[in-house]
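Example 3.2
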Amino acid sequence: MPSVQREASYDVVVLGTGAAGMSTAVFAGLAGLKTLVLEHQSVIGGTTALSAGTIWAPNNFIAQSLPQPDNYETALHYLDQIVGDNAPRVLREQFLKCAPLAIHTLHHQANIPFRARPLHPDYHTEVDGAVLTGRAIETLPFDGRILGKQFSWLSDPIREFTVLGGMMVDRDDIQALLNPGTHIKHCSKILLRHLIDRLSHKRGTRLVMGQALIARLLHACRGLPVNFKLEAVTSAIEYENGTVIGMRYQHRGREQHVKCRHIVLAGGGFNHSATLRSVLLPAIDMQWCPGSAGNKGTTQALAKDIGAVYGESHHSYAFWAPVSTRTRANHSKAVFPHFVMDRGKPGMITVNQQGKRFVNEATSYHLFGLAMQKAAAIPAYLICDAGALRRYGLGMIRPGASQKALQEWVNKAYLYCGDRLEELARQLAIDPAGLNHTVEQFNLMAIAGTDTLFQRGSTAYQNANGDKAYTSEHGLSNPNLAPLTQAPYYAVKLYPGDIGAATGLACNQHAQVLNAAGEALNGLYACGNDMHSIMGGHYPGPGITLGPAITFAYVAIEHIRHNT
């Protein structure tokens, strides 16, 4: 073995730098615990940095101030109906108890500001206890220049989520850029800022969504007893006499040894582990996964070496979204999740190879991904007419794209186009007669305002992602439905992409990792996607991975703090 370098002891070692790991570091630092954060990649952020950064935290201090305030009992009733017996009730009780405390701590002690959008519904608004706003919160945009040299630590966002060579945009920016005449001040401000950024940075420094969350957590660690090491690959957890005593890792060719009493696993889950996918997701191509390539299940493997076990998943091993893909010029794979910007909008449908609809296109992305697998609709085909494409875009294609730009997407074999539905069907190798019949049937339902097959547009959540202004203007009653009538017709292929792991290490309500006998492995904790989902593979609302990730990071540190 290479020479072993011994380091000072730490109270806590954190493995991973997504929202789970970074939150753990902040909570540990605020508690005065000497903390080491290890990341095996050369950048930080994990899948969080690629995400919208939404946090589902019922009964948070923002929700409590709304005209219809949230409360513990209402949120628990909602989760009980969605999750049921698919996960232990004690875990969601702990989550609902501690989520407000975790958010309050980050906001008031770590100076991380949060806001709730005016309308950001739970995904099952038809279920008693759902709310339309307050539970889903996000942090404000962040000036990456404040990080100084640490700005280079952040992983890049998904390229197709940026514009103008690296300018990040959130939903407010998108709406402003689509209507510049009524948002001159906002558009001018962000565009000028980006032009200035490009004089000294490879991309924009105005950070939004998940990038802003990671950057703020990193900034919050300044002045706290928290150290970071990137490109640090953990090789073993030292566990003796029923407790954690230390760990080993390799850093730039040298074997390092750390004495520590507590380790928190926050490695992001298994989604990029070929071995685990062959067991848990055997029919799903890894190239459809839009998550961080660093989520290889290595931290979970370390825990299993000392007796940890996976939790039992009763509904789904992963969380899902329909994705479209293309190969970039540098031969890398672009994977674009279709969350809410297109598939549930008026003038769009999704069909299988027979040209038939098989799903409510406006349902949550998780249920959409599950429906694709259940119906064996892989790939599925998201189809729209020219008007819908112009209004909403289609996957990686921006709204209002020029004919020249559209032809370039066709040449890249990402976009398919036909002057007639039969021509489009032949390009997609699907049944022309089936597609024609489906569109005729759908158009009649759209005019009537009722989807008699799949009830699209029948809930407040679905309507929130529709376009009421457009449908009202054209005399239509359902904000999710409009006929496909304007040639040419366009399509992209959709695949079920796993956006996160629902299956992780079995843990108790204190985030302690358990063995096969249900006993806690003393000193070992897990949160984020390394921890088995408290939602049992269900997806009740936006941010139900980041909310529990941050909350159980808080829970783990509180347990450490009170039992040290």
